[in-house]
Amino acid sequence: MSEIKRRVGVAALACAAILGAAGQVQAAQCGNTSAGFEAWKREFAEEARGRASAQSLAALMGTSYSTATISADRGQKSFRLSLDQFMAKRGANAIVSRGRSLKAQNAALFDSIEQRYGVPPGPLLAIWGMETGFGAVKGNVNTLSAVATLAYDCRRSAYFTDQLYAALQLVDRGILTANTRGAAHGEVGHTQFLPKNVLTYGTGGSLDNVGTALNSTANFLKGHGWRAGAGYQPGQPNFAAIQGWNSASVYQQAIAIIGRRIDGE
């Protein structure tokens, strides 16, 4: 090997090492306490340049570590209840009663949704009632802070990093703002959509609007394989779409049962 080639080779190796080290520095490091959150935001913002606008990154830099989000993420005990216990805790009978009333009051809306997406009123009303008590409790946690906290938290960092990028896009579209508030994991609107689902299945506008939220929820179910006219109880074709809504088995069963009761089956 000539001296020139040797020097070129050494230089290339050195350059690769520097670039590798730079890449390591640029990767935002997760953490399990609030201590590293501000540093993580700066690292993430540097990583995100080119993928997120200056406006959305400014909104990100205004977020704070959400202890309410971490507490909720670590304390989801209701999903470990039996089906009967879960139904009682969530007020299934009240959801059915209110759901039947809303179905009658909004017949034209639900007819148009079923014609477009093939989804009957029952499961939509079950989801609406289960998620927010038909809009009564949509949450009061800052949405960007919630999603940023979970993107920083080591438990599910990759999943919520995707959600954070989606949230930043929604800021640019005017659907979210730095002051938007919702549930503890960053869900928003009447049926509690995470940011990435708003991007993928949202039908336009704010999910604080009932019609938009219900159309978007039907679009979500259709996007997860819902077939018009098929059953949605466990073992039936459309139950898989309900499973796409929430990973907890007890929650899936509750939606199916409550929806069936609302639909009068």
Automatic annotation (TrEMBL):
Q: Name one GO biological process term.
A: peptidoglycan catabolic process
The GO molecular function terms of this record are: peptidoglycan lytic transglycosylase activity
What Gene3D superfamilies does the record tag this protein with?
Answer: Bacterial muramidase (1.10.8.350)
Q: Does the keyword Transcription regulation apply?
A: no
Q: What is its EC number?
A: 4.2.2.-
Residue ranges of the Transglycosylase SLT domain? 37-232
Signal peptide per UniProt = 1-27
Question: What keywords appear on the UniProt entry?
Answer: Lyase, Signal
Q: Which PANTHER family match?
A: LYTIC MUREIN TRANSGLYCOSYLASE, MEMBRANE-BOUND LYTIC MUREIN TRANSGLYCOSYLASE B
Listed name of the protein: Membrane-bound lytic murein transglycosylase B
Species per Swiss-Prot/TrEMBL record: Methylobacterium dankookense
